[in-house]
Each structure stands twice: as C-alpha cells, then as structure tokens.
Specification:
Elements lengths: L1 H10 L3 H14 L9 H28 L7 H34 L12 H33 L5 H41 L27 H9 L4 H8 L7 E5 L7 H14 L7 E6 L8 H10 L4 E6 L6 H7 L3 H17 L9 E7 L1 H7 L4 H4 L6 E5 L6 H8 L18 E4 L16 E5 L5 H4 L30 H11 L14 H11 L7 H14 L2
Parallel strand pairs: 1-3, 2-3, 2-4, 4-5, 5-7, 6-7
Helix pairs in contact: 2-3, 2-4, 3-5, 3-17, 5-6, 9-12, 10-18, 12-13, 18-19
C-alpha cells in the first residue's frame, strides 16, 4: 500500500513544474551581491525550486485550459523519468560549482575562500523548504476546489472557479497577514524595543555637563535608548583627535534624543534643538543634522571622520524615530523616519537661519540607509534656496529613495548605474570605495550633495523589476566588488536580491551595506570643502580608522 501511495504521489507532480523547479534551483546557486552560507542558500534554493514548480504547474494548467492536445500516457511516463534524471544531473552539476561561484564574491571582498558549498546540507534544506511550500500550494488548491464545488450548484463552472480562487486567496492572505506578518512583526517589535532599552554595562552616564544625558542635560540618560547611549559615549575626545592631528583640538558636541523622550516627532525635535543650544552646538564651526538608521544607530564610521577633519570643532544632532532594523522600518513605517527628519530639520534650520551668517556654523545633513531616504525627504530645494545649507552626505540610499532614483535614471549617457555622473557635477556627485569625486573641469555650486554607495549594496541596488528584466547595474562595466559570474535569471534574480537585502549588513566592512570610515573621509572632504589637510595626513587618518577596526 505504501508503494502504491508513493507511486501515486510521484505521478501527482507536474513534469513541467519539476523541470522549471530544477532550473530555478540551479540558477539560485549562482552568485548575486552578498556571500551566502549553506543555511541561507538552502532556504533560497528551496524557495526558488518551489516558485519554479508553481510556474510550471501554471503553464500545464494553462495548456489544458486552452484544450491543446495532450501527450499520450506512455510518452508522459517516459518523459517524467527522463525529466527526473535530467533534473538530478543539472542539480548535481550546479551544486558542484556553487563553492566556485561563492568564492567569486568572497575574493573581491577579501574573504577567505570556502572549500565546499556543503551540497548535502544545501540539498537537504532546499528539499524540506520545497516540500513545505508545495504542501502549502496543494492546500491552497484543495481550498479552491472545495469552495468551487460548493458554488457549482448555484453558478456556472468557470464562475465558480473564479470565485473559489478569490476566496482562497483572501483566506490565505488573511492568515499570512494575521499570523505571520502582524504577529511576527509584533514579536520583532517587542524584541527590538527590549533590546533598545538595554543598558550595556560598559556604557557609563557622562559626567561632563556639556554632554547629552549628563545630570545637566535636558535629555535623561535612560531615555536615550541603547543606540543613543552608544553614540554619546563612544565619540573621540579632544585628546584622541589632537594626538593624531598634532593640532589643538576640541571635544565634539554630540546631541541625541531617544524615542522615549517625546511622544511625537515635533516634541523630540524641539527637545533636540534646546539641547543643542545648551551644549553650545551653534557655537561650533560645523553643524551636522543626522538622521539615524531604523534602529536609531548613528554610524561612528561616518561621524568620527568629520570630527577629526575639523579638529573636533563640530556639533551633530540626531533624533531616534524607530528601534526596528532599517529594512523592517522600510516595510512597516516608511514615512515615520521622514516625519522625524523633517521635524528636526525644520527646528534646527529654522533657528540656524536666524543667526548672523558671518558667525553661524556651516550646516550639513547626513543619513545612512533609511536615514538617507528620510534626509532626502526632510526638505525641498525650493524651501532653502533663499538661504541654503552647505551640503549633504548620503550613504547607502535605499532603492526607494525618490531623489536618488531620479538622478540615477537621468544620469549622463555612458556612465554606469552604480557610479553615475550627473550633468556638470556642480550639485551632485557619486563615489564608492575608490574616490570618484574629483571630476576634471567640474566646479561645485553653493550646495553640495554626495552619495556614497557600494556597487555590492543590495539596499541601494535592489530592483523589483529584476523579476522580469535585467537591472542596468549588472551590465558592463560592473562595480569593483560585484562578481563577474553574476548572471540575470527571470524571477530567480529577484528572489536572490530579496534575500540579499536581509543579509546586506553581513558583508565585510567596505562592501555591501557596511560603509568604511576611510571612504567617508574622501566624501566629507568634498562635501565640507576641506582643503587644509596634506595628502600624507589624510593617508595617516585613513590608516588610523583601518587599524582601529582590527
């Protein structure tokens, strides 16, 4: 009886589905932007195989629906056996090459090569994932058929299938939305909230009255959140800066307002302004408005360099708007970061423009990841043309960034998407690991905008249309850390890039969505028009940050 069940189960599979599923499985083993381990590869491959099987099953259904000639049973049985053998061979060949493909990325990112892609583990995880997803697909089909049969007594057959499909989709979507998305996101929200409240034992409340979170501060230490406390506590001291530069230095001013410090973006922004005034931020030569990532993190690799470049004569201010990871915030609350960024810019810029132009600090904006998107939305050019701030540095801008997308799409002909040139370079320039900001013959205008982006960053170069077309950034010439073995495959590349987004911060520093201080140095020097550093001193500063990470 078991043998009969196995035979029936085997013949219940679509031959077309198995063929397409195997091709999708094989294509999923090829590289994209971020190196994968065997666990993520197995899940991706199983998902790809299931999606390919679903596509093949749909094509088979469409064939029958159009009443095209059916193959004879003998041919069908033989074809299934041949398909099974072909599937096995293709799968084994691609599994054998998987480590070579992964090493093609790892070598560019200076990671140790892997000896094996763990084909047994990948195959087992992929098989389990495939079976689970196919089982869910069959449950969907049973639901559709059950509803359709009940309706067939009252409506025509094809109408019953349309209604049955609609009801099944609504039922499954409601279950996914209620159980997976809402419950799952609620759990993650709670987890991130508890993590944000943690007080690391090595992070002590500052005693200097001028620091945010001190006894004299307008912002309570416990309200800063985990990321805010880290940002305040880890900044370089005047001695740290002076020892490296050999010049008199000041302790930078860092102001941070946590999510618990106010119930609305406007309240937190007003508190940040008052704390910035109290700490003497407007008395520095340079002021930076920072929009953090989704978790509230301000990347020290980005802010430390400008503090060193200005010998500590810098103030920065940031307000937290979330404690979720940027990709989750982008999914759940994409507009909330923009609301907070807009409120903070309005408060700080509004006060800044009332100050005498001769003595007020130069004003810059900075954002990383979701913070870059929110910084773009914090103001419109027509609002500041009468009295513009000096510039902005945006790193790792998400693919959904409106201004970034518009500039990239309208780039100068012949320049690659991963490093575009825009018009005469007087307003906006792009750079990556290798400094590309010194454009021959180009002169900056009054407002400077620089995008720092790595070609291997999926947060930047995720392309929803990769489902059905090859993204421009895949075309030659490719970025310095993008695998030459990368190929575009319909549907599969979309699934690969979707996984890459979740893994973007697992890349080594200087690649993916992990930006390095030495690359920020070149960008800040252009944005802030810093000219008083000798090339040897710049190289020394870059090496300082490289050594600090070891």
């Amino acid at each position: 009886m078991l043998r009969n069940w196995v035979v029936r189960y085997w013949y219940s599979f679509s031959t077309t589905g198995l063929l397409l599923g195997t091709l999708f499985f094989a294509a999923s083993l090829t590289p994209t932007l971020i190196p994968r381990n065997y666990l993520t590869q197995g899940v991706l491959s199983g998902l790809s195989a299931a999606v390919g099987y679903g596509c093949g099953f749909f094509l088979r259904w469409l064939w029958r629906y159009l009443e095209l000639p059916e193959l004879k049973a003998r041919i069908l049985i033989g074809g299934k056996l041949v398909a099974a053998v072909a599937c096995g061979i293709v799968g084994l060949v691609f599994l054998w090459r998987a480590s070579e493909w992964q090493n093609s990325i790892r070598s560019l990112m200076k990671l140790a090569p892997v000896d094996t892609a763990h084909p047994l583990e990948v195959g087992a995880i992929a098989l389990v994932t495939f079976i689970v997803l196919v089982a869910l697909g069959r449950l969907f089909k049973l639901t559709l058929i059950f509803v359709s049969e009940k309706l067939r007594r009252f409506v025509p057959t094809r109408v019953s299938y349309v209604i049955g499909t609609t009801i099944a989709v609504l039922l499954f979507w409601s279950a996914a939305d209620g159980i997976i998305f809402r419950y799952g996101l609620r759990v993650m929200d709670s987890s991130f909230q508890r993590l944000d409240a943690l007080m690391p034992p090595e992070t002590q409340q500052p005693t200097e009255p001028g620091k945010t979170g001190s006894a004299a501060s307008l912002v309570r230490w416990q309200d800063l959140g985990r990321m805010g406390r880290s940002y305040i506590a880890t900044g370089p001291s005047a001695a740290d800066i002076g020892n490296l530069t050999g010049k008199p230095a000041m302790a930078p001013v860092r102001v941070y307002v946590g999510l618990q410090s106010g119930s609305t973006p406007q309240q937190r922004a007003r508190l940040a302004l008052e704390e910035l005034k109290r700490a003497g931020g407007f008395e520095r030569s340079t002021l930076v408005i920072v929009t953090p990532t989704g978790t509230g993190w301000v990347d020290e690799q980005a802010i430390d360099p400008i503090e060193f470049l200005h010998n500590g004569d810098v103030a920065s201010v940031a307000t937290q708007y979330s404690y979720l990871a940027s990709w989750l915030s982008l999914l759940v609350e994409p507009g909330y970061g923009a609301d907070q960024s807009r409120a903070l810019f309005s408060e700080v810029y509004g006060h800044w423009r009332t100050l005498p132009k001769e003595t007020r600090p130069k004003l810059y904006l900075f954002g990383l990841s979701l913070g870059a998107l929110s910084t773009e939305l914090s103001n419109e050019l027509f609002e500041v043309l009468g009295d513009p701030y000096q510039g902005a540095l945006l790193s790792g801008p998400p693919f959904a960034s409106r201004i970034w997308r518009s500039i990239t799409d309208d780039r100068n002909p012949g320049t690659p998407e991963w490093l575009p040139a825009f018009r005469d370079g007087s307003y906006v320039r792009f750079t990556a690991q290798n400094n590309a900001l010194d454009i021959p013959g180009a002169t900056w205008g009054p407002l400077r905008l620089v995008y720092l982006q790595y070609a291997s960053d999926p947060i930047v170069f995720y392309e929803p249309r990769s489902l059905y077309r090859e993204p421009d950034w895949m075309k030659t010439p490719r970025g310095p850390d993008v695998s030459p073995e990368l190929r575009w495959y319909p549907v599969v590349t979309f699934l690969q890039l979707t996984l890459d987004i979740a893994m973007a911060t697992t890349a080594p520093i200087g690649h993916g969505h992990v930006y390095a201080a030495e690359h920020y140095i070149d960008a800040w020097m252009q944005v802030a028009d810093i000219k008083d550093w000798a090339p040897g001193d710049i190289a020394k500063l870059k090496q300082h940050f490289i050594d600090a990470r070891k």
